[in-house]
C-alpha cells in the first residue's frame, strides 16, 4: 500500500494566532430584524466567536480525531488524506465490503465519522456482523489535508482518483460508494466509469439530469425544477461569487476566522434539517472542529476550486448502470423531488427512501438512519 500514517496536529503558534484574531474581531449589525434573514446572525456569530476564542478545547477535538486511523496517499501525483475504519469480522462472518464515503462543501471527513463507526462494527451497535464494511473516508481534493490535482477539479476527475485509491493504493477489487452534494457527484461518476469494480452507488442529494432532449420533463419534474430555480434565486449568492470570484472572497476568509465561521455556518444552518436551530444538529464543538480544520490548513480557498471549475469543465454524468440507491436529503433544495428524475441517471434504481429526517449533512445528522439504509441497500450486493 502506497500510504503513510498521518496525525492531525496544529501547532501552538497557529492556535495562539487564531485566538488573538478571534479576540480582535469587529462585528457588524444585522441588516434585517428577522433572525438570520440576511445571513449569519451577528449576535449568534459573536457568541460562537467568543466560545471559539476562550472556551473551545481544540486539543480535545484533536485527540478525538486522532482516535481514528488517518493516512496520506500519493494517488497519481495527488496528495489524498483519508480516514480508514476497518470492518470488524467475527469468526465465520464474511469479509467486510469496502465502502468509500464522499463528503461535500462546506463539509469534511468529520461529517462521516459517526456513521463510519456504525458501518464498520454493526455487531456492537445492534446490527448484524455480516453487514460490516471496511470504510474509507477521503478528504476531497483541496479540502483540509488533501492537495489539489494538476488541472481542473471535476467530479469525474475525483472519481478517477478515488478509484485508484481504492483499487491501487488499498488493493480492493470491488467496493461500494456513498455520498451527497459534491461527493454525490463523485459517487455517480464512480458508478458510471467503473461498473466492474463498483458494487453500487448510494446518494443522499438526488440527481437532476440536464438531458431532457430524448424525454422532456414531466409535469411533476417541471414543477420541481421550477421550485429549485425559485429556491436558488434566494440561496445561491454564495455559489455565484465562488464560481466567478473565488479568490476575492477567499482573501477575506483566509484572513478572518470569524468571517470563515460566518461563511460556513450559514450553510450548516440553511442546509441542515435543524428547523432554524443550528446547534440542534451541530453542537458547538463539532462545528468549531470543522472551522479550525479549515483555518489551520488554510484550505477554504482551495475548497472553492470545484465551484470555479464546475461550469467550465464538468460534463453531464452518463447513465449509471450499477445498482443505485437514494435516501433523499430533507432540505429545501430537494423538497418535492420526484423519483423519476433520479431514474433518468440511475438506470437500476433499487432503493428509494424519503425519510424526511436529516438534511444536507445526513451522515452526521442521522448516522443511525444512514447506517441502516446503507446496510439494507448493499446487503444483497455483497
Question: Could you please describe the fold and organization of this structure?
Answer:
The chain is an alpha/beta fold and 382 residues long. It has one domain: Alpha/Beta hydrolase fold, catalytic domain (Rossmann fold, 3-Layer(aba) Sandwich). It is built from 17 helices and 9 strands. A 9-stranded mixed beta sheet has the order 1-2-3-5-4-6-7-8-9, sandwiched between helices. A hairpin with a 2-residue loop joins strand 2 and strand 3 (78-85). Helix 1 packs antiparallel against helix 2 (42-54), helix 8 (237-244) crosses helix 9 (246-255) and helix 9 (246-255) crosses helix 10. The mean pLDDT is 95.
List the helices and strands and how they pair.
Blueprint: E1 3-6, H1 12-23, H2 42-54, H3 58-65, E2 69-75, E3 78-85, E4 97-102, H4 113-120, E5 133-138, H5 155-169, E6 175-179, H6 182-193, E7 198-203, H7 219-235, H8 237-244, H9 246-255, H10 257-271, H11 284-297, H12 300-303, H13 305-308, H14 310-313, E8 324-327, H15 339-345, E9 349-353, H16 362-365, H17 367-378
Parallel strand pairs: 4-5, 4-6, 6-7, 7-8, 8-9
Antiparallel strand pairs: 1-2, 2-3, 3-5
Helix pairs in contact: 1-2, 4-17, 5-6, 8-9, 9-10, 10-11
